[in-house]
Design brief:
This protein has six helices and five strands. By secondary structure, it is α+β, with helices and mostly antiparallel strands.
Length: 115
Amino acid sequence: MISFLQLLALLAMFQWALPNEIPYLQIYDISDISQVVPDYSYVPDLDLASSLRHQNPLRERDNITSRFGKNEQEIINIITETIEPDSWNDGTASIRLWNHKLLVTAPARIHSQIK
C-alpha cells in the first residue's frame, strides 16, 4: 500500500517530468539549406597571368559537378534516423514538410536535439 506522502512524492515527480514529455509543434524553416544551386558545368576560368602575357585569358575548366543544399526528404531522413529513431515510429514524434518548412510535433528533448 502506498502512503499519502509517497503518493504526493510520485505526483510531484510526474508533474515535474510531464511538461518535458508533452509533444508540441515547432516549425523549422529549412529553405536556406534545402535549395539546390544549379550546376553550371561549362564555366570558363579566368587566368589573369595569361592575360598579362597577351594570351587568351579564358580557359575551359573541367566539368565540375557541385551541388549545394539537400533536398527536403534527405533532411527528414537524417533527422528521423539519427535523433531518437524509435520516437518517430512509435508515435511520440512526427515530422511533416510544408512549403520548405519542417513541422515537427515532439517532446522538448527531441526539439533540443533538432536545434
